[in-house]
Amino acid sequence: MKIIDIQIALAKLGFTPGPLDGIWGRQTAAAVRAFQAKNNLEVDGIIGPMTLAALLPGVAQPTDLTDPSLVWFKEACRVIGTREKPGAGSNPIIIDWATDLGINYGRDDIPWCGLFVGHCISATLDREPTPNGLLGARSWERFGIRTDPTPGAVMVFWRQSKQSGRGHVGFYAGEDATAYRILGGNQSDQVSLAWVLKDRLVAARWPSTVPAPVPHAVTIRTRTEVLSWNEA
């Protein structure tokens, strides 16, 4: 299910989700809250099973990566392909993510996987706290609540060595027997999908303002990409 489907349904019922552009932002979240309040639902701005059933009767709640409640993951998907600007200068999109978060971020050759996750969370979950020092991937170990790996979870990994203090962070997008498929920033200098060994996982976290999931795997049977080892 797509965000645009939610926006169109809200607009048809007289609510105001903002531009019908498939981008989840504050106006869409506010429209969902208004819809929930009018229909005696929990006012959390999340398209959970009860809200979806009231908004789009007969449409089942997906439990995979198409779940409409995973708005931060959908934002991550929307910006796949965003990459650093080679050579001098920086991609203004990446710089704007930092500006929106109030971060003094000089240039896009500074590791930005934490910035990418911060953008996706803050742009879609307007009441969700982000960790201090979010540019540091390992700072995301303090984010939200603990979960097991599941669609949309924030996945934190060690990088170079377990003792280095360095890390990588992205979103769960599947797994096979030995590795997780991660949708992350600064993977080959862009927002992309990459495979990271399960042995490197430090923590899986979930937004505290979103109902806790029932963790489950999305199994991918064929891995076509090589393993990622040093995301920076």
Automatic annotation (TrEMBL):
Signal peptide feature range: none
A Pfam family assignment: PG_binding_1
UniProt domain Peptidoglycan binding-like: residue ranges: 3-55
Highest taxon, organism lineage: Bacteria
Alphabetical list of InterPro entries matching this protein: CHP02594, Peptidoglycan-bd-like, PGBD-like_sf, PGBDSf
Name under which the protein is recorded: TIGR02594 family protein
Species name: Kaistia soli DSM 19436
